[in-house]
Specification:
This protein has 2 domains: 11-118, Farnesyl Diphosphate Synthase, CATH 1.10.600; 120-282 and 287-291, Farnesyl Diphosphate Synthase (Orthogonal Bundle). With 291 residues, the chain is an all-alpha fold. It has helices at residues 12-23, 26-31, 36-58, 62-80, 87-96, 103-118, 125-147, 153-172, 174-179, 187-192, 197-201, 211-234, 237-240, 244-262, 276-289.
Length: 291
């Protein structure tokens, strides 16, 4: 099993830059405000996350996807042993030690994607929280290290913020995930609000957007807002300036969540998004205001 090929004419640095830019993610707009060395590190790390995530999202055969994830595990081990072979790891390795990016961080991200291959439901919030820790909390920790931190509590802030942002993603993507046969909303909470899994999976069912579904989604949104507030309360003042890119992402994601709320949680048939210009404006406003 080999990793994805890349054109020989493209350097590892160009490869990760194009990978990050092509995703259209809110993260990319926050990267623009970083000094070049930190921008290079977060771009390479984010490209790694995208590569691994794409294995699950773009590979229909679960056996093939599992084999690709196994390849990435081997690649991480080889890369930290001084033998990177993929453009992403070649770009990332020179920056790993300066920004405390460890093999365990990358392995956790891979493990989170592995969970997507193995389960399509989460019985309760505790199970979902474990998944979010791997695919978002760990990512938040690495990002906080790259942005620059001096206080241990900043790691707690980053994990909490990553959880809030991942829950926002889950709310936004209910319809997209249903098309793949996935429901990330905990089964216990579907039962709490009397929403059947089949009602979500059959997005064109006659039941439409019921009051039950809206109450379920409002419950999810309120929890996400609570986590954003808790994350902001954890961020030490000493690290606030360095962590501006994380605050930019938080403001972009929270604006998206409020848009979804204002639209009545019409997430089964559409995927709410912000325009690139609006994301850039939110990032610039956060940079200017510092919060």
């Amino acid at each position: 099993m080999t990793g994805p090929a890349s054109p020989a004419a493209i350097s590892p640095q160009q490869y990760v830059q194009e990978k990050a830019a092509a995703s259209g993610s809110s993260f990319y707009y926050a990267f623009l405000f970083l000094p070049p060395p930190r921008r290079a590190a977060i771009t390479a790390f984010y490209a790694f996350c995208r590569e691994v995530d794409d294995v699950v999202d773009e590979t229909s055969d679960s056996g093939v996807a599992a084999a690709k994830l196994a390849w990435w595990r081997q690649e991480v081990q080889a890369a930290f042993a001084g033998r990177p072979s993929h453009p992403v790891t070649k770009a990332l390795m020179p920056l790993a030690a300066p920004y405390d990016i460890r093999p365990s961080h990358l392995m956790d991200v891979i493990e989170g994607c592995q969970m997507d291959l193995q389960q399509t439901r989460y019985l309760d919030y505790a199970g979902l929280e474990r998944y979010c820790h791997l695919v978002a909390g760990v990512v938040g920790e690495v990002a906080a290290n790259i942005f620059g931190r001096t206080e241990p509590r900043t790691v707690q802030y980053a994990h909490k913020l990553g959880l809030a942002m991942q829950l926002t993603n889950i709310i936004r993507d209910v319809g997209d995930d249903a098309r793949r046969g996935r429901i990330y909303l905990p089964v216990a909470e579907l039962q709490q609000f009397d929403v059947k899994a089949q009602e979500i999976l059959k997005r064109d069912a006659p039941w439409g957007y019921s009051d039950r579904f809206e109450r379920l989604m409002r419950f999810q949104a309120e929890r996400a807002h609570r986590l954003y507030d808790e994350a902001m309360a954890l961020l030490p003042e000493a690290d606030r300036a360095a962590q501006k890119p994380g605050l930019m992402m938080a403001n972009i994601y929270r604006t998206l969540l409020r848009e979804i709320e204002a639209d009545g949680f019409r997430v089964l048939h559409q995927r709410t998004s912000l325009t690139p210009l609006r994301k850039l404006w939110i990032a610039w406003r956060t940079h200017w205001r510092g919060r």
